[in-house]
Amino acid sequence: MKKFGLILALVAALPVSALVSVNAVAAAEPEGLVKVAVGKMLYDADGKKLAAIYKLDSKGPQLLLDGKVVTVPTSTLTEVDGKFATSMTKRDLMTR
After folding, report:
1. Residue 36 CB partners (closer than 8 Å, separation 6+)
2. Can you tell me the distance from the alpha carbon of 37 to that of 31, in angstroms, rounded to the nearest whole number?
3. Residue 47 domain-assigned?
4. Does 10 reside within a domain?
């Protein structure tokens, strides 16, 4: 409880401009951003295992599917209970 009081005192001592800039930074982060990691398993739209994430690309995580490197669009990703999934099926990914 002492730490909370100290934090409150420090925040109260900040000028309003500092508080506004902190809020602006927080608001600039995209909501719903899924942070995946290399080695984590990715599941398809039906809940079936696709593959472990092989590499991270600016467009999304990459998987090795049937000997082919496939990039999964970040806009299709979700995380539920620590499991990463895409709204696409394996067939969708292979035909992109």
Report:
1. 42, 53, 56, 61, 77, 79, 84
2. 18
3. yes
4. no
23: in domain: no
> Which tens digit of pLDDT belongs to each residue from 58-76?
899 999 999 999 999 999 9
The residue segments making up the domain with residue 54 are: 41-94
Residue 36, domain member (yes or no): no
Rg value, the chain, Cα: 20
Beta bridge partners of 70: 63
For strand 77-80 and strand 83-86, is the pairing parallel, antiparallel, or unpaired? antiparallel
CA 17, chain centre distance (Å): 30
pTM of the model: 0.63
Q: Flag whether pLDDT at 20 surpasses 70.
A: no
Count of domains in the chain? 1
Question: Which own/partner contact pairs does 50-53 have at CB distance under 8 Å and 24+ positions apart?
Answer: 50/86, 50/90, 50/93, 53/84
- The two structure tokens encoding residue 38: 């290399």
